[in-house]
Amino acid sequence: MQLKNPILGLCQQSTFMLSAAKVDQCPDDEGFEVAFAGRSNAGKSSALNTLTHASLARTSKTPGRTQLLNFFKLDDDRRLVDLPGYGYAKVPIPLKLHWQRHLEAYLGGRESLKGLILMMDIRHPMTDFDLLMLDWAVAAGMPMHILLTKADKLTYGAAKNVLLKVQADIRKGWGDAISIQLFSAPKRMGLEDAYTVLAGWMELADKGAEIAPIAE
């Protein structure tokens, strides 16, 4: 019998916790956190909202609107974190430097961070900033899972081809540790695979759920 993924109920009851401009404003560094990162306008906020069945993360047609570390509570021990979108040219340089400094401090020093979900627009994958995030994750030994977002913008065949190419490029350059999937917020494509990853990182996969492995 296929049992419901235990992360699903937690995501559905998620609530906004706090916003932090600096690392010392973050919640206590304990429990489990999964952070969502991505180039500005890669669909990060839409993905978070779809996974939580709520409008937790602010979406905007203007890239670069997420300027803080935004924490969302799943339960007393588990949180999702919406990281500032990176790479948007119109953001002032001092603000970019502020984001970079505090984002690096968060990523490098947060003991409760168990994994990083990296959003890439399927039409524009593997940007310079994506490559930097891949380099950092591998060097830090941080689990990473990639959502190729906006997959509905391509035909399924074209989307699958992009998935296979990016997957091959990542294996060649960074090894087999990084997983990847297609995702579409409007079409609700790829939700189960994403929930599987979240449940595993947050140590929920062994609490009664029969979860299939991520498909290649």
From TrEMBL:
CDD domains attached to this UniProt entry: YihA_EngB
GO (cellular component) term, any one: cytosol
Keywords: Cell cycle, Cell division, GTP-binding, Magnesium, Metal-binding, Nucleotide-binding, Septation
Residue ranges annotated for the EngB-type G domain, each copy included: 30-204
Superkingdom field: Bacteria
Pfam families: MMR_HSR1
One Gene Ontology biological process: division septum assembly
GO molecular function, one term: metal ion binding
Needed co-factor(s): Mg(2+)
InterPro entries: G_ENGB_dom, GTP-bd, GTP-bd_ribosome_bio_YsxC, P-loop_NTPase
NCBIfam families tied to this protein: GTPase_YsxC
Cited function: Necessary for normal cell division and for the maintenance of normal septation.
Record-stated family: Belongs to the TRAFAC class TrmE-Era-EngA-EngB-Septin-like GTPase superfamily. EngB GTPase family.
Identification of the protein by name: Probable GTP-binding protein EngB
